[in-house]
Amino acid sequence: MGAVVGLAVGRGTGAELADVFERVLGVLATGVAVERSPRVYDSYFSLRDNDSGTPAMRERTLADAGHYERFCRDLAARGARAVFRTAINAQSLYLVRQRLRAVKVDEITAGLLVVRDQAQGFYTGDNEHGPGIITRTTVFRREITREVLSYAVERARELWPEGPAEIVLAYKFHLLDGEFDRWVREAAADAGVAVRLCQPDTVNRDLLERGPVPRTVIVAGNEWGDIMHVLLLDRYGSRRQEESCTENVYLHPDVAGLTEFQTVHGSADDIAGRGLVNPTATVRAAAAVARQVGCAGAVVAVERALAAVADEGIATPDRGGRHTTTEVVDALIASPDLLHA
C-alpha cells in the first residue's frame, strides 16, 4: 500500500481548495491515498454567522478541536507523515496545537529560519467569562520551552551542516519573573549553543538596522511570530501571504513524525463558491506534501510551473487576472514542468 496523507477541510473556501490539493497531489505523487476527515470544520465566520450564544460557540469550538486532534492522532498511529488542512477557526486550531505541542516552521530565506512556538503563551490557554469580562489563563512550561529550542537547533543543523550562526529568541520574557530566562539559559547550555533572548521590539529593531545575519534562527513566541510573519515574508522572502504555505510540526510523542501543511491565508468566506480564490498557496502546499512522502522534485517543478503560467498571464483576479480558480489549476496541471516532476 502506498503512502497515506490526511486532508482536513474547513468552511469558507475550504472545499474549493481541498479539490485543488487533491488534483495537484494526484499529478505530483501518484499512488498516494488521500484520507479526508469526515467532519467539515467551522471557520470563525461560519461560527459567528450561526451565533446562538457564547456557550454554543464554545461547544462547537471544542467539538472541532477534539475531532481534529483525534484525526491527527489516528493518522500518526497509522504511519502517515503529512496532513493538509485548509483554514479553520483559530480558537479550535490552537487548542489542537497546544495539546499536540506544535511549532510552525518557515524558511523565510535560505539564511533565515523562523520557528514559532505554538504550544504555549497567549495563543493557548482557557477562557472564563463573567459579566462584561473575559479572563484568559495561559501557561508556559519548562519542558515545552526546552523541546521547542531543541527542535529549532536540530532543524537548523539539518538545514545548514555548519550549524546556525545566530539563535535569537523573541519572547515577552520580562513578564515572567525571570523564570523563563533561566529555562532558556539551561536549555541552551544543555544543547551546547549560544542564544540571545530578546524582547520582541529588540528583535524588530535589529532586523530593521542590519537584517538577519546568514544562518539565523529566530525562535519566537507566537504573539510576535503571528504578527511579524507577513512582514518577514514580504521584506526578506519576497513572498505574499496569500500565495504562501507553511508547515506545523507536532512535538508530542504520540504524533511524532506527522507534519501539518497549511496555506498562510485565511478561509476567505466572502468569496466562497465563486471560483475566485487564488490556488497558489494550496498548490505549493501540495508540492510540500509530495516532497514529504518522497517526491523530491515536486517543489522545484511546481515553482517552475507557477512561473510559466504567470508568464502566460493566467491568474485569478487578486493578481490582476481574469481567470477562475479552476482555470489556473487546469493550466498548471497542463504545464510540462508539472507533468515531468
UniProtKB/TrEMBL annotation:
Which residues belong to the signal peptide in this entry?
none
The cofactor(s) it depends on are: Mg(2+); Mn(2+)
Residue ranges of every copy of the Isopropylmalate dehydrogenase-like domain listed in the record:
4-332
* Entry keywords, A to Z: Manganese, Metal-binding, NAD, Oxidoreductase
Q: Does the keyword NAD apply?
A: yes
One Gene Ontology MF term: oxidoreductase activity
Pfam families given in the database record: Iso_dh
Q: Which Gene3D superfamilies match?
A: Isopropylmalate Dehydrogenase
Q: Which PANTHER family match?
A: D-MALATE DEHYDROGENASE [DECARBOXYLATING]
Output this protein's name.
Isocitrate/isopropylmalate dehydrogenase
What organism is this sequence from? Answer: Saccharothrix violaceirubra
